[in-house]
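Batch job 17 of 40 flagged for manual review because the log was empty.
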Amino acid sequence: MLLTIIAAAVLAQQKNITTTNENTLLWKISGNGLAQPSYLFGTIHMLCADEALLSDSLKKIIGRSEQVYMEVDMDNLFEMLGMMKQMKMRNDTTWADLLSAEDYEKVKSYFEKQSSLMPFSMMETFKPFLAASLLMESGIQCSSAVAMEQVIMAEAKKNKKQIKGLETMASQMSIFDQIPYKLQAQQLVEYIDKSEAGKTEDTKEYDELINAYREQDLKKLEEITIRSDMGLASFTDILLYNRNHNWVEKLKTLLPEKSLLIAVGAGHLPGEKGVINLLRKAGYTLTPIRNKVTITKEI
């Protein structure tokens, strides 16, 4: 079956981008003495390529922004080359050190069957929570998947915009050193046990997360993000809230200087301790911006 995906953004009739009462991932940051507005956008780390589309609103914002800030500087080759090293556990720890012999063999067998992933000898040195995230993302139901960050970065490069990061790859990956490796490994085993018994609750929740992202429903995204934590609810401050606080403190110094697009994981936006509310508490006005993309399928 031949399928042509034609993406057309639904734009307002006015010349300027307009606010909307619809669900949205795109927000204008103004007020608090800013000479020019900046914008905040919620990303997702993996989406079907034919759905990873930028609205005309977002394209215009990228075109007129002076810099694009993401969680980490994905355009920094040195940073990205060091990513594999940062994903590894400290002190040459492997999953064999964390699991019983039976559980280790179970996990090894499971990963070796996942031909799309990297060799197990490399994977078993990774922080287990990162490996579990890779498993969930690899289960996305489409022939080709892409990170929204990559799509934004490509558009930024096309517009010759400088790309920067709110945190380093080292600091981001070090977050998972604060969560006991053994606990992470146990959660990985539980995920695999459920997966081999059929569709897991974690996989269902990931599907639900993708759907909420497509609908740009931040309230639903917040609910799922907090709920689908693989048993790591007590570490929400480490995984989300502390980082949100640190980003907003950095943005307080960046926003007065230039007009920015800030693109971070959508799960960081909503809630009392989310980036939107923290920026409001810091005195800024956060206004929802229409970000509607209509996908038309032709057979």
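Reviewer: the log was empty due to a logging misconfiguration, but the result itself is present. The first helix runs from residue 56 to 64. Unflagging and moving on to job 18.
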